[in-house]
Amino acid sequence: MHEQLRKLGFSRSHLEYVFENSIDPGLLARVVSASHENYLIQSLSEQCLAQISGKLRFSAESASDFPVVGDWVVVSDSSSELITQILPRQSFIARSAVGKRDQQILAANIDNALVVMAADRDFKLARLDRYLSLIMDQNIVPVVFLNKIDLIDEAELNRLESEIFKRHPHLTVFSGSIHQEKGLQELSESFSPGLSFCIVGSSGVGKSSLINYLARQHLERVKTVGSGTGRGRHTTTSGHLHILANGAILIDTPGLREVGMTDAESGIQNAFAEIEELARQCRFSDCSHNSEPGCAVRKAIEEGMLLEEKFTSYQKLKREAARFGQTIAQKRQKEKGFGKMVRQVLKFKKNNKVIQ
Ligand code: GDP
Ligand code: ZN
Questions:
Q1: Which ligand is nearest to the CA of 315?
Q2: Where are the beta strands (DSSP E) in the chain?
């Protein structure tokens, strides 16, 4: 049973929660797609269309209290089509990162986000910053795919890669071309079994092409969890959570693909370029912009040319890039021993008669 949970992306922290709250793991399911309060859910044994319980609805204070794709939910022990609880989200991607209350949550429990960038004229580091701040706020590990390298020469590619590296030294960056099927194998191998990832990026960078490639490449083996192999009722609902051939879980909804586009005005957009430019004028090249003499960043803040908050968020992003820029290998390492823990917990619960 635990293997099945893990295949669906169940994580250690969810497990701890389930354990602490004496939730029967047999009642867990993952939301595969959500539309108009109809939820296609995948449990350990079946998929079905489910609704939320009256209690859950009445206790909901905002849109974010309703299930979204990727959520782990608990179903009623009397009906597998009734959702009674949403497990706390380990991470989520929302449409508006600013307004805390009324943000629209697009997907939950995401481990990795693949930020697709195009290497052609559209390439803008400021955009990458925007996506990274959106992602890393949530403890989601970003991976970058620099697409369309068929449109540039090697010198230009080196230039772009080093530009990214200079700004975000800990970031994992792949480059390639979907048209030429270059770099894609490596990229798809970077996603680990049982980890959920999503694909984001500006319009036109190649997200749909990449998803088509993944679907083509893994055609017989791509299991669209929500494609309606269960009961007859949900034939019109399509899933947005797919298990790829290597076991990685792709969460793909149209809204998610476009996230960040609408947040263009969030103010992050140009802040980084601006600060980097100022930093180049500091007296010391390793200036930390705290109290060093001749600091151009401090001077700009004092003169009201640069908002203190912008600078703070810049520093935060830099720190987080260092913290969350852990390699995928490290993440994998962390997930090791998971199976053992699940077995221990289940054994414990069994001995304590929590599971019938
Ligand atoms: P989306 O808006 O991010 O989903 O981007 P699409 O997948 O729709 O791609 C936008 C355009 O870029 C389409 O015309 C694709 O054919 C093209 N495109 C995608 N990948 C590549 C690539 O590797 N090289 C080139 N030259 N064009 C590409
Ligand atoms: Zn400085």
A1: 2
A2: 28-35, 38-43, 47-52, 72-75, 82-86, 92-94, 105-108, 112-118, 141-147, 172-175, 196-200, 223-224, 241-243, 249-251
- Nearest alpha-carbon partner for 311 in 282, 289, 286, 284: 289
- Residues spanned by CATH 3.40.50.300 within the chain? 92-252
Residue whose CA is at the smallest distance from ligand 1 atom 7: 206
Residue range 92-252 in CATH 3.40.50.300: yes
Is residue 93 a contact partner of residue 138, using CB atoms and an 8 Å limit?
yes
pLDDT tens digits, residue range 278-315? 888 999 988 989 889 999 999 999 988 887 877 887 77
Which residues sit with their C-beta closer than 6 Å to ligand 1? 147-148, 150-151, 177-179, 201, 203-209
Confidence of residue 339 (pLDDT cuts 50, 70, 90): low
Residue whose Cα lies nearest atom 18 of ligand 1: it is 206
Looking from the CA of residue 116, the nearest atom of ligand 1 is: 3
Q: Atom 9 in ligand 1: which residue has the minimum CA distance?
A: 206
Residues sharing a CB contact under 8 Å with residue 85, sequence separation 6 or more, in sequence order: 23, 56, 73, 74
pTM of the model as a whole: 0.73
14-40 per-position pLDDT tens digit: 999 999 999 999 999 999 998 888 999
